[in-house]
Every structure is written in C-alpha cells, then in structure tokens.
Amino acid sequence: MSSPRIEVDLSKIRHNTRTIVERLKARGIHVTGVTKAVCGHPAIAQAMLDGGAAGLAEARLSNVRRLRKAEITCPITLIRTPMLSQAEDVVQVCEASYNTELTVISALAVAAIRQKKVHEVILMIEMGDLREGILPQDLGGIAQQVVDMPGVALKGIGANFACLSGVAPTATKMQDLSDLVKNIEGRCGSVLQAVSGGNSANLPWALGELPIGRINDLRIGEAILLGVDPVSGNQIGGMYRDAFTLFAEVIETNAKPLSPPISFANPVLAKLHLVPEIETGERAILAIGLQDTDISGLSLPLGNTFIGATSDHLILGTKLETRRLGSEMRFKMNYSALMRAMAAPDVQTNLLHDRPAPDVRDSHGPNKHLALV
C-alpha cells in the first residue's frame, strides 16, 4: 500500500455517531454531523447518516459540491457565514446557512427568488467565543428583518463555543440562549424550528442533569470522528478513538549525533571552545512532514521521541532496534492533524468497511473516559 495514507474504519464512525445520537435523543436533541474536517468525504458523511445524524453541516462549498456529486441528498447546512460572492451557489446546493450579516442574507434572498426556492437562515449569536455572531442586543431587529424578507425563512438561531477564544459552554450561557429564543418568538410571532446550542464541546452540558431549555440541535464533528471531548481531550466512554490511523513510510534509518555540530564564525571563540563528547542515537526519518499534517497533533508510537520536522520529513529518535527501511509507522491524530492530513493532496485515504471492531481502549496509555451516560 502507498503511504502516507489514512485508514478510516467506517464501522467505528457509524458506532460513534449512533452512540451520540441515542444519548442526545433521550434529551430531546438531534445531531447534525459536521464533515468539514474530512473535506466532505462522501463515505464518511454517509457513515454519519447511517449512524442516525439528522443532516450534515459543512464550512466550504467545494465540500458540499463533493457531497452532492456523490448523491448525498440529505439537508446540508453551510455553517461558515456565506461569502457574499457565493450567495447564488449557496442557495443552489444548501438548504440552509448560518448567517450574521443582513447584506449577505439579502443576497441569499435574491438568489433564492431567482431559483424559485426559499432558503432557510439560522442566525448565529455571539455568546462569548468572539468568533462570528450577532450581538444579543441586536438580534431582535435583525430577526424581524429576516422574517419580513421574501426568499428566505428564519429557521432558528445558533451559538458557537470553544473555538477561537476557548470559552466553554455553561448552563448559564445555554439558558441565555434559550431566553433569546423566547424573545425572538415573542417579537416576530413565529416559532423557531432549530436552536443549535453549539458543537462537540457542548456534550458534557447536553448530557448532564440540568434542563436543556430550548436547545434541540448540536453540530457534532470531532466527537464522532475521534471519540474525544474537545475541551478536555479525554476519551468519551463507549466510543472509539482510532477510527482514523495515519501511516507513514520510513525512508532512512541511521545512528546520528543527537545534536548538530557547533560552528563558530569567530576563530578565537572556536579555539576557546571545549568540544563535548558527541552522543549518537538511532533515528528514523519518515516521508511525511509539515505540508501533510499538523505534526504536533500526532501521537507517537511507544519507544519513539520527536526530534524535528520539515516540510517533507519527520525525524524520530528511538531506543528500540533500528526500524527497517521501507517499513511503516502508524499514528493517531488529534483534530488539527486529521483536518490537515485529510486536505493534503499527497495523503491517500483508504476506507475500511467491515473490519471487526475491537474493544474500546487507548493503546497509548490508560483509558481516560468522559462518561456521557
């Protein structure tokens, strides 16, 4: 098999999705599967749908087109605020979009009328993460203008947490979001269909014991794909962390100095310098680098240490016997590493459909479970 490559166990994606869907269903919340980290890969998206996701969410139109080309017909929502220049295309391929700008919403309305459609709008509210969002005090007026605008329909509101500023969702913030729903409905006279409380970071709150208020949707990507709580990084009980495995080939094995030789531009300093004993160590160089993934997001196999990385090389030190030239090493990835590897043109994606699913365990240390039960 060629490498670098990512092997994807679709049965684990289905399992992770089903686990979250069933647990949130008991709380009255449905799941929208987010596929942006896997570049809208159709097979992975279908695994989410097979696991019970109510629909899909994407951040880039190129990924949405990939899904539509693969005949994925479920509702797809654009979760990044649409570009003004892409309004026509957004209406064409997405049933709904998250919005913060009235100018963009007006362009979507014009495009929808031209295409003889009604495009659904979800207004994103600023709740502390300081990424995108309408300020709460401005929400009522903007919501009323959307309700009065032909070509679009106000589907609901949403919020985002733990992305730009790392602000985690709290019970107070979730209650504030529910209160905004009541205010809008009272002002506009219509019932909001969707109240999207956030992303995977909301799972501890959503599956706790406190009332959920009006929240009825969560946009889940990282927890499904990697089986972890994004805030703590802990494994979610009953879910798989290894649905994705990155493989890279060893292209050089050798014993080299553990530190580079020191050279001095000043000859006087060179004469005064006492040369230390040069220590050597076994190293392996792999054919993967910064252009392929976020190297800092890789979990190294036991017995290996990180030495460095360049655009095309990953250098590891090892106390084990020298790796065989041409052999492969495997890595688990965090969300950042997965996202970049899936987008890298030279990293192949191989799908595993029917491999028996082993017991959930962390192969790089003791289990760390977030008990979402």
Written description of the protein model:
This protein has 373 residues and is an alpha/beta fold. The chain folds into two domains: 9-227, TIM Barrel (Alpha-Beta Barrel), CATH 3.20.20; 244-352, Elongation Factor Tu (Ef-tu), domain 3. The protein contains eleven helices and 18 strands.
Give the tags:
8-stranded mixed beta sheet; elongated; 373 residues; 2 domains; TIM Barrel; 8-stranded parallel beta sheet; Elongation Factor Tu (Ef-tu), domain 3
Class by SSE composition: alpha/beta
In CATH's first tier, which class of the largest domain applies?
A: Alpha Beta
Number of helices: 11
- Tell me the CATH topology of the largest domain: TIM Barrel
Largest sheet features: 8 strands, mixed
Question: Average pLDDT, to the nearest integer?
Answer: 90
User: What is the CATH architecture descriptor of the largest domain?
Assistant: Alpha-Beta Barrel
Number of domains: 2
Q: Radius of gyration from the CA trace?
A: 24 Å
Q: Count all strands and give the number.
A: 18
CATH level 4 superfamily of the largest domain: Alanine racemase
The N- to C-terminal Cα distance equals: 40 Å
Principal-axis shape equals: elongated
Run of helices and strands: EHEHEHEHEHEHEHEHEHEEHEEEEEHEE
Helix content: 25-40%
**In what range is the share of β-strand residues?**
15-25%
Low-confidence stretches: 272-278, 360-367
